[in-house]
Amino acid sequence: MADWKEKLTDLFEKQSEEKQNQKIKPDTATKKLQQKGDEFLCSVVDPALRDLAAELYKYERKACTFGGSKLSREMEVRFQNRVEFRYVMNVYTGAIKITVHTSYQARYQSGREEQGEAMIMKDGKQADIADITRDDIIDNFMKQYIVRETPCSC
User: Fold this and answer.
1) What are the pLDDT digits (tens) for 117-131?
2) Residue 150 CB: number of other CB atoms within 10 A?
């Protein structure tokens, strides 16, 4: 089997060609869902996170918001140059539905860390993106932020 290197080259070149041939552009429905998710982040999530950041600033917290990817937003809350809380909101687009998912990472005064995930709920069900408001975003953030032991007072 002296030609094993050639066989590997042939194998990977063939796989590379197949991947190039399989590249599919997102269909119109998927693009519309992605656009709807982007509009939601810009018109609902961003203003909510800005309002939270402004309010946290009053309590000596520096809250920075940024986009982790095209369909996500992240907020990092710092106190005395230490990250005490990180909140992430992701919008996932499927074939026919958009899902909003949140996660957080908290650092306690004791040094312990905790992570969690949540969905925004309405009437006991996962909320539809069209029904989620700025206040729902703030409420979801607050539920995660207040659950912590106590804010860091390092």
Assistant:
1) 988 888 888 888 999
2) 8
